[in-house]
Amino acid sequence: MKYNLCFIGIGNMGGSLVDIFLHKNLWERKQLLLCDCDERKLLKYANGDSVKLFTDATEAVRQSRTFVIAVKPQDSDALFRKIRMVLHPDSLIISTMAGVSINTICSSTGCNAVIRTMPNLPVMLGKGMIGWACSAAISQKMKIRFRSKIRYIGKELYFPEEETLDKITALSGSGPMYIAFIALSLMEAGIKLGLPEQEARIIAIQTLLGSSMMLAQLAIHPETFIAQITSKGGTTEQAMKIFQHHDLKNIITEAVEAAFARAQTLSSHK
């Protein structure tokens, strides 16, 4: 029997996952349940499609045994209290909530089968990075099935130690901001040189996109790539000297370490 799949929390992350599941036909539509206390977030799915919509989590939970919980971490306690009494003990819970541990989810819901994920925002385009860990109750067969679905939203890496997810949060979860900040800096530098804003924006973003694709598709180590494109006495070398003078690499490292420390703090509260 194939159980209904219930998404609880249809915000940026939950909504992105739902959209990919619908677009890729990853689950039979009539067995998809979408739940959010904000009815406005469900409106885009109220178009005659066969998915079922709920604003009451208790009612949605009664009709499923497989859940993707994508609510804000600070809302998790209230949700768990509400659904615990109606959750089937054999349910599978997949969480996208940062800082909410597997142990907390198990003890708060009474369910032993939990997969905790740390996706980042590019899952919206099927280009995300997803780190994940799971409870001991997740069998090898369940892991394989989970991977068969998650590959549609980006690259995934499994980590036996759940604590590693705090590092993924710092590097990848917050990563889109790092890239956007670099894009903004390049764009503003172009404007300062005299380029129109629109052209500077296009150039900055396309440069980041193309360079990232080269690193990924050609499997070049970043250090090797830098050496290959930095000609002695050239323009790129002059830019690198400024980066080195201001120790840009260390600044980025400090930023990631600060994000990691915050992720650990949030996890310790859960």
UniProtKB/TrEMBL annotation:
EC code(s) of this entry: 1.5.1.2
Keywords: Amino-acid biosynthesis, Cytoplasm, NADP, Oxidoreductase, Proline biosynthesis
Pyrroline-5-carboxylate reductase dimerisation domain sequence ranges: 162-266
Localisation: Cytoplasm
Cellular-component GO terms for this entry: cytoplasm
A Pfam family the protein falls into: P5CR_dimer
Residues binding NADP(+), per UniProt: I8, G9, I10, G11, N12, M13, A70, V71, K72, P73
Residue span(s) of domain Pyrroline-5-carboxylate reductase catalytic N-terminal: 5-99
Pathway: Amino-acid biosynthesis; L-proline biosynthesis; L-proline from L-glutamate 5-semialdehyde: step 1/1
GO molecular function: pyrroline-5-carboxylate reductase activity
GO terms for biological process, alphabetical: L-proline biosynthetic process
Ligase listed as a keyword: no
EC class name: oxidoreductase
Matching InterPro entries: 6-PGluconate_DH-like_C_sf, NAD(P)-bd_dom_sf, P5C_Rdtase_cat_N, P5CR_dimer, Pyrroline-COOH_reductase
Functional note: Catalyzes the reduction of 1-pyrroline-5-carboxylate (PCA) to L-proline.
NCBIfam families per record: proC
PANTHER family for this protein: PYRROLINE-5-CARBOXYLATE REDUCTASE
Protein name, as recorded: Pyrroline-5-carboxylate reductase
Taxonomic source organism: Candidatus Fischerbacteria bacterium RBG_13_37_8
Lineage of origin: Bacteria, Candidatus Fischeribacteriota
Gene from which this protein is expressed: proC
